[in-house]
Every structure is written in structure tokens, then in C-alpha cells.
Amino acid sequence: MTAIEDVLSSELKWSSPRERHQISRMFAEKGFPGCVGLIDGTLIELLQRPRFDGETYYDRKANYSINAQIVCDHRRKITFLYCGLPGSVQDVSAARRSTLWKYLERDESVIFGREEYLLGDSGYIPMPHLVPAFKVSAANCEKSDFNNCLAHARVINEHCIGVLKSRWHSLKQLRTQLKSDGAVEHDPTPNENPTATGLGAGQSGTSLCNRVMENALRICRQHGGFLNRQRRMQDNNGVFHAP
């Protein structure tokens, strides 16, 4: 954990307003103007059962692990990290414990500009600055189309986590015995005086999700045969396969 803390203090930086503008432009090409990052959770397996409260580290994959929350941009550059909670903790619960969460749930925020947001999978919940995938069946075509568009963008974060674990093999299985339950995170609050403003009064996570869905579907339908390809992958039962 000490090595991770050293990296957090020296290398990990939240995107500046200018960088977020560029990130948003790149994600706009995928149908998500305003998106400034992708959030996802991953499990870091432990070789040994932790000495204290070991049962809480037993995860859904039948391993002992810790949960890590990672935000990256379109270049797979990590801009936020929060890790150390037991592997049995769900992603949304782990994210709730992080410094980032209090900025995600505010209408006015010091790290997000107007109508800027993160994309996440269905393990998260709609918030003023977070748009997750819908928890729906394939029978809802519009929301299924949106989930496919979102998955097409979110694959960047999955690649980021894969590259991270390939680069540092110890992240595939930590051999150090955990002696405490302390979590490690990077505070994304910028040092300089913020110039960005939030969404404005009255804007909720649900209204943001609806607006983002409308924009994403419009752009995806205009520009690509991506959704058409997804429909061609539909099986006889009407189930959409993941891209």
C-alpha cells in the first residue's frame, strides 16, 4: 500500500478543465458528449485470507480479494483510484466510501464542469455526474440500444484495467498479508481555484441519464451501423449479445 500511496501523490492527477474538454470531444464521437471519464470496479485477488475479518474479503468469484474503483479517460489514463475495501463489497458501495462520491452526488461540483459526467455499468446508480447502464431486459429496445452504445464506450476502461494488471503482475494476486482494513485513495480535488460550474439547480441524476440516452441514441443512429450490427447479432429469443 505504501508504494500505491507514493504513486497517488506524485502521478495520479484529476483532469483539468482543458483536459476534460478534450476528453468530452473524444467521447462525443462515440455518442457521449460531456463524458469526461469511465468508472469501473475490479477485484485484486489475495494469496492469503486476511488475518482480521477475513470472511468479508471472500468475493463472488470464490477468492479473497480487495475492491478497487478506477476512473480513466479516453486514452486509458487513470485519473482516480480508490482501493482497499473487502472484495465482498459491491462497486456502488465501494464508490460511496470514496472522496469522488461526494462530488458525483452534488449538483454543484469543483471537479466537474457543466453537464460533465462519468459513464459506469449497471452496478452504479444515476447521479448528477454519473450515468450508468440501465438494468433492463432486451425486450426494452431503446434502453438495450443505449446499453450497447455505452458498453462500446466502456470497453476502454476494461482495457485499462487489463493493461494495469498485465503491467504489474502482483495485482493479479497480492502475496502480502493484510494487517489492517485501511483503504487508499486519491483526492481528486484540484489544487487551483476551480472555474467550472455544475449542472445547475434542479438537475437530477435521472434527468441527466435520460438526456444522455437521447443524445447517444441519436448520434449512434446517425453515424454508424454499430446498432444495426448489434441487432444482426440478435438470436432467435431476441437476446442481445454483448459487443
UniProtKB/TrEMBL annotation:
Single Gene Ontology MF annotation: nuclease activity
Domain DDE Tnp4: 39-177
Pfam families for the chain: DDE_Tnp_4
Cofactor requirements of the protein: a divalent metal cation
Any GO CC annotation of this UniProt entry: nucleus
Domain of life of the native organism: Eukaryota
Intracellular or extracellular location(s): Nucleus
Swiss-Prot/TrEMBL keywords: Hydrolase, Metal-binding, Nuclease, Nucleus
Family membership: Belongs to the HARBI1 family.
PANTHER family in alphabetical order: GH03217P-RELATED (PTHR22930:SF85), PTHR22930
Protein name (record): DDE Tnp4 domain-containing protein
Taxonomic path: Eukaryota, Viridiplantae, Streptophyta, Embryophyta, Marchantiophyta
